[in-house]
Every structure is written in structure tokens, then in C-alpha cells.
Write a structure and sequence with these properties.
The complex is a heterodimer.
Chain A: E1 4-5, H1 8-12, H2 15-39, H3 41-46, H4 54-71, H5 77-108, H6 114-148
Helix pairs in contact in A: 4-5, 5-6
Chain B: H1 2-24, E1 25-26, H2 28-32, H3 39-52, H4 54-84, H5 89-95, H6 97-112
The chains are: A mainly alpha, B mainly alpha.
Chain lengths: ~160, ~110
């Protein structure tokens, strides 16, 4: 499946759901500051990669997918669970980008302008995350073709 | 107190912004990348540089690497459980939280403490 925009998703979400994510995001950012103040930057830094809004996001995705299937008269529980699982797999790939984000900030923040370092680190997060996602997608295609009995060359083509 | 309020507002806004971007994208696995966006880190590090200086923020970033590894293990575990067992996403994501803490603080204990 190609990457694209799903504009209907905004219509599905309620304001309370965005408010919830704002609340969790704000709380964890404030907590990271408090922990750093109390226990120092080494412990405080751990929380910068805390999956604060992940439970809320996964639950919402499961709920939306389930409702979509239920509206068509089918049981959507399985579909909802699978969608949440796929979303979690995406987050796992994104966390590898998050690791590089941290490495870039750690190595360059003291010697370069802060805004430029954070910008480059964010770009590094995006590039690595998308790259890992592409590799996994390609590996999935190759695996499916092998499973179906097609020959595949090194580039993943039939 | 004012500083905490600023952190709360900036963090909330950045987390919401990345969440909306994630909501707008498809397929689900690609949108999921934004579940691990550096939103909290961007807000915290930008404010920390302004108040405590770049060296202090760089130390936080070094620890963040352990948090990111913990996030990877946590999210992979959640994905596997949801794919193989009939469990609710809410309980799995919440129930697996101790795994994040164990890995993050385990790595902190092994390599970052000193």
C-alpha cells in the first residue's frame, strides 16, 4: 500500500481524544522537567522517549477500526486488534529513528546552534524511520511472494 | 511553576501536532512511525537549552538513547501480543509499561549511572 493522506480520520476523531493526547503530552513533558530537576539530567533524559500517548493512540485506533467493521454488520474486534498491532509495529520502527535523534542531539548540541541541531535530529528521525519502514515493507513483499511460490531476484522483483 | 506550565503547554502542543500528522497518514504501519515521534524530546530539550544550557540538554539526550531502546522493545512486544492473543489494546499497552521502565532503567543502571 502506498503512503497517502487519510483525510476522513480527522472526522472520526473527537475533540476529547485530542484533548486527552494534549494532556498526556503536556504532563509527561512537565514530568520530565521535574524528574531532571529532582534526580538530574541522566534520569530525566530517560523520560524523553517515554511512550506517553502510545496507549491512548493504540486504543483509539482499535476502537475506530472496530466501529468501522461493526457498522458494516461484521465483528470488528479482530480487525481492531490487528490495526493496533500494526500501529505498534510502526511505533517500533519509529523508535529506531528516535534513537538516532538522541545520538545526533547528544553529539552535536554542545558544538552547534540548538535550533539547527534539533532540526537536523528531527530530520534524522524521519529519514531513519521511513527507511526502516521501507525495508520492512520490501521484506514483507519478498516473503509473501516466496510464500506464494514466485521466484524473486535480489532486488525483490519477480 | 510558570516554567512547568510552559513545559506543559509546549509539550502538549507538540505531541498533539505529531499525533494529528499520524492520524492523517495511511497505511497504519506508516502512521505508526509518528507514535514514536520526538515530540516530548523536542519540547523538553528546547526549553532545557534555554534554561540550563546545551551541555545539560546533551546529557539528557544521551540518556534518551536508553529510553528509545526501551521504546523499541516495548512497542515490538505490544505489537506481537496484539497479533497473537485476543487482548484489548488498552490493557496490553498499559500492562507492558513496566517493560519500558525495566529496560530503560536497566540500561541506565548498566551504562549511564556513572
Amino acid at each position: 500500500m502506498r503512503v497517502g493522506l487519510n483525510s476522513s480520520a480527522l472526522g472520526q476523531a473527537k475533540w476529547s481524544q485530542y484533548a486527552l493526547r494534549f494532556l498526556f503530552g503536556g504532563l509527561i513533558t512537565a514530568a520530565a522537567g521535574l524528574v531532571a530537576k529532582q534526580y538530574g539530567p541522566v534520569v530525566g533524559g530517560l523520560l524523553l522517549a517515554f511512550p506517553a500517548i502510545f496507549p491512548a493512540s493504540a486504543t483509539l485506533i482499535e476502537k475506530h477500526e472496530k466501529e468501522k467493521k461493526d457498522n458494516h454488520g461484521m465483528s470488528g474486534a479482530e480487525r481492531g486488534r490487528q490495526a493496533a498491532s500494526v500501529d505498534a509495529a510502526g511505533a517500533a520502527m519509529g523508535s529506531l529513528g528516535l534513537l538516532l535523534f538522541a545520538v545526533v542531539v547528544w553529539q552535536f548540541l554542545s558544538v552547534h546552534r540548538a535550533w539547527a541541531t534539533l532540526l537536523w535530529a528531527t530530520a534524522a528521525w524521519l529519514v531513519v524511520s521511513v527507511f526502516v519502514w521501507q525495508i520492512r515493507k520490501h521484506a514483507g513483499i519478498v516473503r509473501r511472494r516466496r510464500h506464494m511460490g514466485f521466484g524473486v531476484d535480489h532486488a525483490g522483483r519477480q | 511553576m510558570i516554567q512547568m506550565l510552559i513545559r506543559f503547554l509546549v509539550g502538549g502542543a507538540l505531541v498533539s501536532a505529531f499525533a494529528v500528522i499520524g492520524d492523517l497518514l495511511k497505511p497504519k504501519s506508516f502512521a505508526g512511525l509518528f507514535g514514536a515521534a520526538p515530540s516530548v524530546a523536542l519540547a523538553t530539550l528546547a526549553l532545557t537549552v534555554a534554561t540550563e544550557g546545551a551541555s545539560y540538554a546533551a546529557i539528557e539526550a544521551r540518556s534518551m538513547m536508553a529510553g528509545a531502546v526501551a521504546f523499541f522493545i516495548y512497542a515490538s512486544f505490544v505489537s506481537w501480543i496484539l497479533m497473537h492473543y485476543r487482548s484489548k489494546a488498552f490493557w496490553v499497552t498499559l500492562g507492558a509499561m513496566p517493560l519500558w521502565f525495566a529496560v530503560a532503567f536497566g540500561l541506565w543502571g548498566i551504562g549511564l549511572r556513572s
